[in-house]
Amino acid sequence: MGRFARGGAMVGALVLTASLALTGCGGDQKKPEFVSGAQQTGAPAAVGSTDAPSPQAVAPLTVSPADGADDRPVSSEIRAKIPGGGEVTKVVLATADGDTVEGQLRRDGSSWVPSKPLKYRTRYTATVTGTGTDGQTHRGTSSFTTMAKPKSMIGSGLYMFSGKTYGVAMPVVAEFSPGIPKKDRAAVQKRMFVQTDPPQRGAWHWLYNGTQAYYRAPEYWKPGTTITVRLALAGIPLSNGRYGNVDRVATAKIGRSFEMKVDNATKRMTVYQDGAVIRTLPVSLGKKSTPSSSGTMVVMEKKESTVFDTRDEPDPDNQYVTKIDFAQRLTWGGEYIHSAPWSEGVQGRENVSHGCVNVSMANGRWLFARTLIGDPVTVRGTERKLVPGNGWTAWSMSWSEFVEGSALPVPEGGAGPAF
């Protein structure tokens, strides 16, 4: 069982393109909260009249951030409300220099979200246009200024690279250092956007200490899925006085279906591709004093050649320095699938490892050439259960258990995209 420090955060590029309108209380969708006053003329004068039409004031929209607001977070969203309900049709956010910010309305109509963080210490003007349930056009503006860059920030990471292809069990993994306080997780989760093509519902699950959050669907991703992620964290204010540091973005692809299932009873690994068995391999798992973990893990890291150094283990019997070939990490604690020529004589019959899944040199090479980061590995029948958070453990629980870890309510079948 090897030991290595956890990898750094992985960041990619994201472009969000959907644009949805808000509807008022007269429609089936949720009423918006959108923008500030305008004047409209009333009905024309009667035929033959020489009097000019009398102007009628249109009830103003209410905009947030409010006009004149100062020290607003760079994560601010534009909210507005049309009195009596209606539909917001256009939002323009611009600096005093005329530079505009792209953005889009949330699907639930609650706000307009800039597609990138606002700039620090910058004055913005939001101009909103909408149609009321009375059929009249409402317009309004609000100018506000963002805060200076805060000194106390929270670190963040995204374990996904843009342009990469992952296995069907690859969760979206957000990491925070220090962890997000429990009372702040709902607000942070609202700013963590995931879209999939083809569409698949999903949910977030927070680890107990708030250092990581996983996003997955009820089942493995469909092969060929494109996953687009934006952790819109820059400027989010937290209750501990810290602020989010940066936005993390990535667009990645899901490859073919490839699963590895290990049974301690038979000491065999069965390998499936696209649902069909393509090979069965003999294995040796962890001995009783250092058992392998039972649960569903994913391949987190691949190294064709590395060195396992466990000389800091308290038990002298578990201390060694060994060169390892075809290593595929499954847990942060140091469980791997790897070739082990020294145990080939007992593979399929006896467990002798320090917690890893031992395979022969030939089988290790064969697996290594075919796996992707994010491929699922399920081990069953061992003396130890996989500990949540020891690796990307998003799939080592039922869907009902998984959604219990969300900071926001999850609709049956999972939440859809925000936009």
Automatic annotation (TrEMBL):
Active site: H338, C356
GO cellular component assignments: extracellular region
Pathway, per record: Cell wall biogenesis; peptidoglycan biosynthesis
Region Disordered, residue ranges: 33-74
SUPFAM superfamilies: L,D-transpeptidase catalytic domain-like (SSF141523)
A Pfam family matched in the record: Big_10
GO molecular function: acyltransferase activity; peptidoglycan L,D-transpeptidase activity
GO biological process: cell wall organization; peptidoglycan-protein cross-linking; regulation of cell shape
Gene3D superfamilies linked to this entry: 2.60.40.3710, 2.60.40.3780, L,D-transpeptidase catalytic domain-like (2.40.440.10)
The protein's name in its UniProt record: L,D-TPase catalytic domain-containing protein
